[in-house]
Amino acid sequence: MKIKFLGTGGGRFASISQKRMTGGFRIDNFDGKNYHVDPGPGALVRTYQFGLNPADLDGIFVSHSHTDHYNDAEILIEAMTKGMTKNNGIIMGSQSVFEGFESWGPAISKYHRANSKNLILTANKSKKFPFLTIKGTKTMHGDPTCVGFQIENKNGFKISYTSDTKYFDTLHKYHKGADILIASVLRHGSKSISGHMCSDNFAKLIQEVNPKLAIMTHFGFKMLAANPIEEAKRIYKDTGVRTLAAFDGMLVNVNENHPEKSGMTHLKSKFYSKKSEDSKNNYKQYKKSNNYKNNSNFNKKV
């Protein structure tokens, strides 16, 4: 199993500026299936940039109807369904994504929903498939129907994703038992804003959930200025749980038996860009950090 980050920027200004990419992330070979999560602006291009194939998707998850989470969903659905000529895959997400809710959505047209299974998720609603079980997780965000998820494979391995949400007292209950916890963490330190977590919020959530591996992504301008890697190191020191700050092009080779020992590297970019060089530099920062050297096997080839 591999987790591949095709964008780690969050919020409207990161999306507009592309200071960090906003393509979401993929969970590949999850019991042989591939899923794209929150394909924001540029997801299709980043898929090709990092040597992946959008046609090999089996599912697309869209947490809510904000542009930085859904922008490229329809074109990826076209890829998954071979140009809307085949019935294939599953589309999962919030009520607003499928039906619209008040001023939000719908984010995916009826046409694009027609050739795939559709699953509207709500908090604690679970659906079992032959290849996975998926449960919706509660959020508190601007789009009131926004939903995170927890997916489980046949071996009982669980990955949780908070999506955009503020921290609230019962948030940890929805992500209980997660082996890997992935969270949208927009700001650093204690500087949370409405509908979003900050680093201190994430540290508290980690202590309550106690995953084997924690990954934060979806960074805003102020988090990037504060250096997400330093924030992750501080969280690791405070919680004892290995914590990664995702970077554009980051690949995690998941060790299901010992997630905390999962290897990490960067995907090779097919395009030359300053962004790809920044990703390599972020990876080099991790390799120089004793906190990470002691806990991972760094793979040089992808």
Backbone CA Rg: 17 Å
Helix content: 25-40%
Query: What is the terminal-to-terminal distance?
Result: 13 Å
Shape: globular
Report strand %.
Answer: 25-35%
From the coordinates shown, what is the CATH architecture? Answer: 4-Layer Sandwich
* Secondary structural class: alpha/beta
- The number of distinct β-strands equals 16
Let me know the CATH homologous superfamily. Answer: Ribonuclease Z/Hydroxyacylglutathione hydrolase-like
Q: Spell out the helices and strands N to C.
A: EHEEHEHHEHHEEEEEHEEHEHHEEEHH
Note down, in words, how this protein is organized:
The protein has twelve helices and 16 strands. It is an alpha/beta fold. The longest helix has 15 residues, at 274-288. The chain starts with a strand and ends in a 9-residue tail after the last helix.
